[in-house]
Amino acid sequence: MKSSLFRIEILVAAMLPVTALWVIGILSMRNLDSVLFLVVLALSSVLVFLAELAIFWFFQRTTRSQQQALTEVCRAYVAGDLSQRATPQGDETLLELTHTINTLLEHISSQMQTAARNQFAANEFQRTTQAVQKLIGEIKPVMEGDLRVHASATSGDIGLISDICNALIEELVDLAKWTRYSTGRVKTKTHTLLSNAVELARTTETQMLRFSETTEAVEKLVAFVQRLSNTLQLNVEIVHEALTALKQHTGLRAVSADVTVLRNEGSDLHLVAMLQRLQTDLQRQEQLLKSLLDSTQSHATLAESMISDLYAIARRSHDASTAILTTAQYIHSLSVLAQQWHNSVATFQLPEDALQESTQEEEEDSMTPEGPLRKQVSLLS
């Protein structure tokens, strides 16, 4: 729209002198007055000059304001301010130039923002890399068993990782302490249990030998009781046969005594009394032998059951001894495992170890004559 108006202004400025000449010519032809022609010509020339001057002044002012706006935008860009933009005004040429400059500024601004973001990311990456390398350098001694280190990063994500590493180191310190304590207790207790197991195995072996000797003695006793039982059985049978024979003899003597009762009465009575007494003694001896035989057989049965019990006790003792030896093997393997655990944490350096070492060094320095002098020299240095 402004470009069309500018063209119309240029056209009007070009047509004004022609129009003035036409007016002057027409008026001069009507009046045939040369003075009037000159006056009108002079006035028309002045008016045309003033009109063209006004038109060019307006055109120059519009162009100058647009150029000044573009110049201010360029100066602001040189100064580093990328936020200013040129306002589109003027003809099409200036409009295209304004749009081109604004587009260029937008492109440069986006590139600079991208570069700034990339630079910030690069700086952040470098800072993070340095912090990570520092953190790795601080906690690297942990891989060699030194648990006295402490990560010092306290800000950002690296600070969070540092706190996690410090917590992990503290957990490792507690684990190492507990492992040392538990392995020491396990080694002590396993040593005691092994000693007790060996002593118990020896005691069980001694008891088994005693049970074996007792079993042999009881077997000999059972054999003796069985022989005694057989002897008593023979004695019972002999006494029973003697008693039977005595009863038959007593019956015969009783019949013959009836025939010759008058002839030898005194001697037969004495013999009959002796036979009756012998019969009574034999009956008592038979009863005694039977009771002794029954008692001997019951004792033999009891001795045989005792032998079975002794064999059972010996077997149980053997099983107990085997179980004790198996338990001793398990205890020994547990002791070996505890020793391995103790060796695995023996290389760890704990904060308490450093305190103990410093305390020992102080005690050694205090015990040596040059210890106080060395401290004074170190303080002076």
TrEMBL record:
Concerning InterPro entries, the annotation shows: HAMP_dom
Gene Ontology CC terms? membrane
Quote the PROSITE patterns the UniProt record gives: HAMP (PS50885)
**Where does the record place the HAMP domain?**
68-113
Q: SUPFAM superfamilies annotated for this entry?
A: Methyl-accepting chemotaxis protein (MCP) signaling domain
Q: Name one GO biological process term.
A: signal transduction
- The question of whether Iron-sulfur is a record keyword is answered with no
At the top level, the lineage of the source is: Bacteria
Q: Which SMART domains match?
A: HAMP
Q: Which UniProt keywords are listed? A: Membrane, Transmembrane, Transmembrane helix
TM ranges: 6-28, 35-59
Per the record, which residues fall in region Disordered?
355-381
- State the Gene3D superfamilies in the record: Methyl-accepting chemotaxis protein
- The protein in question is named HAMP domain-containing protein
Please report the organism this UniProt entry assigns to the protein.
Thermosporothrix hazakensis
